[in-house]
Amino acid sequence: MARLPRLTVPGYPHHVIQRGNNRQMIFRDAADHEFMLGLLTEQAKKLQVEIHAYVLMGNHFHLLATPQTQDGLPLMMQSVGRSYVRYFNRRHQRSGTLWEGRYRSTIVQSERYLLACMVYIDLNPVRAGMVAQPGDYPWSSYAHSMGRRNDPLVTPHALFWSLGNTPFAREAAYGELVRAGIVGADQAQIGQSVHAGWALGEADFIAALQQRTQRRVAKGKAGRPAIQTG
């Protein structure tokens, strides 16, 4: 079955993942990570895409991003992808494709899943067994969220600001969320939704989102708009 077209809606958070072809390494050293962060920072600003969280893993990366225009997110991913491949192939003396096809993404219901997605992204290196604590991994937005560095790529979402009235309160509250982790059902839904391209949210959110597009936004019976989160 043909893959669904990606769904992009301005003003909504999107969970994005881009993998290396055949799960090959796309970041070999610190210079590669830094070059990608520079590209993302430049293009996100240029194309009006707010990045709320990210993690650069060895063979893939995640973003939690809100585009302000219809074309901002796809244009950003296209520009970053092409520029990074040219850089990577030249620097590492290779040729050919680097990405596993097009990036995958899903729209996220802010009130229900945005903070959970942030935690999911920040805990990725821990789940992969690369580090014991998320703060031990240098290539994510966790340090910015915890007030340990100022990351020019990150624009905090309004729900993150609502965690507390002071930076210390927000950082403490977010730290508690990360320490608590994600319940198994939420973790599975977050992972499955971004790979399948189905929107991530509760039934009323899915129903309202479906009214904005002819493209099905959630898994359901063929020919019927889906109103369940699956």
From TrEMBL:
InterPro entries, per the entry: Transposase_17 (IPR002686), Transposase_17_sf (IPR036515)
SMART domains: Y1_Tnp
Organism ancestry: Bacteria, Pseudomonadati, Pseudomonadota, Betaproteobacteria, Burkholderiales
Species assigned in the record: Diaphorobacter limosus
Name recorded for this polypeptide: Transposase
Transposase IS200-like domain mapped to chain residues: 9-124
Domain of life: Bacteria
Transmembrane segments: none
PANTHER family cross-referenced by the UniProt entry: TRANSPOSASE IS200-LIKE DOMAIN-CONTAINING PROTEIN (PTHR34322:SF2), TRANSPOSASE, Y1_TNP DOMAIN-CONTAINING (PTHR34322)
